[in-house]
Each structure stands twice: as C-alpha cells, then as structure tokens.
Design goal:
Involved in protein export. Participates in an early event of protein translocation. The protein is mainly alpha-helical. 51% of the residues lie in helices and 0% in strands. The longest helix is centred in the middle third of the chain and has 32 residues.
C-alpha cells in the first residue's frame, strides 16, 4: 500500500512541477513569455489558459498535501511504539536484575569482557618500538 502511494505521490510531484513551469510569469522578470497579444495563436490563450493552469495547480497541490499526510500516517502505523521500560528484562536470571532499580547479581559488562579477553592485560595497550 505504501509503495503504491509513494508512486502516486511522485507522479503528482512531477505533474505539479510541470504545471508550475507551464504557467506564464506575471512579473516578467526575464522579459520572456510575451504579452496577452503575443503570437502563436494556440487554442487556449489569454485568460482561459491561466484559469485552467491555476485550477490544475490547486488540484495537484491538494492531492500532494493529501498524499503527504497519508504517507506520514502510514509511516507512523508501521513503526511500533517502543519504550525504555519495555526493553528491560523482566525475568530474574543469574545476571539479570529482577527490578529496574536492582543491581545484577553476576559480573558486570566490563568483567565479562575481561574474562573473554583471557590473559591479555586490562590496561591500555602502548605500541612498543623494536
């Protein structure tokens, strides 16, 4: 479902960019685009084209907004809520606390790492020159 919605969203984005680029600049910033009496004589000229492009832009913007919200909601549903309290072990084993504030009965993490290293010294390793 989410993949289909992402594809629809991308199609809407591309259409929205295309429609915005098709619109004539009202400010005439670069001096391009000609006036309302410009040549060419297409079937949609002047006011009709501006209204159609404006309406199309508004519809595409509303669809973009709706698909963005839908994708955000779907992303929230697919993520399971987590809590630090939920990740604590509840069973009381030899190395696990039985309550959140209680210290473990067995060796700590540092002691376990030192046991795994065996006979290597626990201090910092300094390279020696030969």
């Amino acid at each position: 479902m989410q993949t289909v919605l992402i594809i629809v969203h991308l199609i809407i984005v591309l259409a929205l960019v295309g429609v915005v680029l098709l619109q004539r600049s009202e400010g005439g910033g670069l001096g391009m685009g000609g006036g309302s009496s410009g040549g060419g004589g297409g079937f949609m000229t002047g006011r009709g084209q501006a209204n159609a492009l404006t309406r199309t832009t508004a519809v595409l913007a509303a669809l973009f907004f709706a698909t963005s919200l839908a994708l955000a909601i779907l992303a929230g549903y697919s993520r399971a809520p987590t809590s630090v309290i939920d990740t604590l072990p509840l069973s009381s084993g030899p190395n696990q606390p039985s309550a959140p504030g209680e210290a473990p009965a067995g060796p700590g993490v540092l002691e376990q790492l030192q046991q795994l290293q065996g006979d290597q010294p626990a201090g910092p390793q300094v390279p020696q020159s030969r």
